[in-house]
UniProtKB/TrEMBL annotation:
InterPro entries according to UniProt: GAF-like_dom_sf, HTH_MetabolicPath_Reg, Tscrpt_reg_IclR_C, Tscrpt_reg_IclR_N, WH-like_DNA-bd_sf, WH_DNA-bd_sf
Main function: May be an activator protein for the gylABX operon.
SUPFAM superfamilies: GAF domain-like, Winged helix' DNA-binding domain
Gene Ontology biological-process annotations: glycerol metabolic process; negative regulation of DNA-templated transcription
PANTHER family noted in UniProt: HELIX-TURN-HELIX TRANSCRIPTIONAL REGULATOR, ICLR FAMILY (PTHR30136), HTH-TYPE TRANSCRIPTIONAL REPRESSOR ALLR (PTHR30136:SF24)
One Pfam family per UniProt: HTH_IclR
Protein name: Glycerol operon regulatory protein
Signal peptide as annotated in the record: none
Domain IclR-ED: 73-246
Domain of life assignment: Bacteria
Source species: Saccharopolyspora montiporae
An example molecular function term from Gene Ontology annotations: DNA binding
Higher taxonomy: Bacteria, Bacillati, Actinomycetota, Actinomycetes, Pseudonocardiales
Keywords: DNA-binding, Glycerol metabolism, Transcription, Transcription regulation
Domain HTH iclR-type: 11-72
Amino acid sequence: MARAEHEPTLITSVQRALRLLDAVAELPDGATAKYLARSTGLKLPTAYHLLRTLVYEGYLHKVDDGTFVLGERVSELNTAGRGHVTRGRVRAVMSALCDSLGAAIYLGRYHNGEVEVAEIVDNRRCPRVDTWVDFREAAHATAIGKCLLAGLSRDARADHFHRHPPADLTPRTVTRVHDLVEARRAELVLDWEEYSLGTACLAAPVAGAEPVTLAISFPANRSATTTEYLDPLRAAADELSRALVLDGNAASF
């Protein structure tokens, strides 16, 4: 019978290797090649060949007594997999917020002494801000940057502005270092045309091991009605805080 058009082309050797990995994973103390061959229905030479390949690639480790156990690559994949799950949850929250508010959504963090924008969700109806100045150099002029810096100690903020002296980006940009260093942590931070004329931004802190923030950007002429953004932004930031704490992956997105 001819193969159906919708039927996928499967690589038998890959399937067999995965079956061996599954079999080893079910046995905390590992298993011999003979046992694994029997349990997976493979011929012993085939099992040996696949096991040697899996050991070589780091997915299995052969113990001195001849048993096979899971290797370091499996642990690395497990860690990376948890990170992908976290990233998926983060993007789901951001996408829902983008759709409900009609605004571009940003997730930022302060990592290794710099402001980073880790994720952006936007669309044609609500495009992201044109990044005409790198956010690392413009923390003083963006709600994202100011919210992240507010999560640092006073000395850390002073150090940041020593490395990145604030510059005038628009007539509304606050550049007085004393005011920026002494700024208090707030539930919400607003940037009204400080980074880019015609654009406003709101940011809310997200709980984590390092400063994290969720922010939205929108036309500045809508800033008089920012109350429509406040509760949804707070709620989304709280949801992300819970997700990151539960997953233990605040630094993985």
